[in-house]
Amino acid sequence: MKPPFVIELLADHDRENFACGTEPLDRYLTSQVTQDVRRHVTNCFVAVEVETGIIAGYYTVAAASIPTPDLPEVIIKKLPRYPSLPAIRVGRLAIDLRFQGKGLGGALLADAAARGLRAEAAAFAMLVEAKDDAAVAFYEHHGFERLASQPRSLFLALASAGKALSAGRGQKKR
Ligand SMILES: CC(C)(COP(=O)(O)OP(=O)(O)OC[C@H]1O[C@@H](n2cnc3c(N)ncnc32)[C@H](O)[C@@H]1OP(=O)(O)O)[C@@H](O)C(=O)NCCC(=O)NCCS
In angstroms, what CA-CA distances link 6 with 1, 56, 122, 138, 174? Predict the structure, then answer.
């Protein structure tokens, strides 16, 4: 049986009708993301419903770094004494209202983590930016922890991401 969604790089998909309930995230997808991709400041992956071609969700990802003192002591102790550590940043994550609550948000996080682990430039962790307390709770539910100096920025070590975000758990059959 075909999976209901594929996750792929944004290309010539129809972006017009995307609505996640947060207008700036919709506007970013419809009118800004292609410029950012062209300028190499982000990449954008979309979850596309296979049957209809509709964009059900998207995330953006770019290279980043984490100031080492922002990490918990228990993690710092196991790492080399570099002032910062390489990371990937999922700057935006949004699921269209028609597809929320089906596990797609978690599946997109798992997809970003898997790509971070496969990337040729090493990344120690995935960083996310939560826009509000509900988003913080969503990320904490998936095993992310807050950075010490930026409570709306959370991280998940990629080495443990597999366990925390068991890939594909979200792609429940419809
Ligand atoms: C937040 C958002 C990405 C979640 O996506 P989703 O596909 O609806 O969520 P999922 O179905 O993948 O949820 C997966 C798990 O997270 C939990 N969850 C969802 N929202 C949560 C929240 N706010 N707090 C705690 N847990 C939450 C679900 O209960 C589910 O748990 P389970 O796997 O144990 O059953 C989506 O609602 C959205 O796009 N919201 C608008 C934009 C936004 O807030 N983006 C967040 C980044 S700033």
Answer: 13, 10, 25, 22, 14
Strand partners, 161: none
Name the residue among 12, 109, 116, 1 with its Cα closest to residue 57. 109
**Residues in contact with 77: Cβ distance below 8 Å, sequence separation at least 6, in sequence order:** none
How far is Cα 9 from Cα 23, in angstroms, rounded to an integer? 22
The single residue listed with the structure tokens 């709770």 is 137
Give the pLDDT confidence of 3-34 residue by residue, as tens digits: 799 999 999 999 999 999 999 999 999 999 99
| Nearest one of 166, 164, 163, 153 to 71, comparing CA atoms | 153
Point out the ligand 1 atom lying closest to the alpha carbon of residue 21: 41
59 catalytic per annotation: no
**Upper half-sphere CA count for residue 14 (Cβ side, 13 Å):** 7
Which residue CA neighbors atom 35 of ligand 1 most closely? 103
Distance CA(66)–CA(47), nearest Å, equals 27
Instruction: Write down the pLDDT at residue 166.
Output: 67
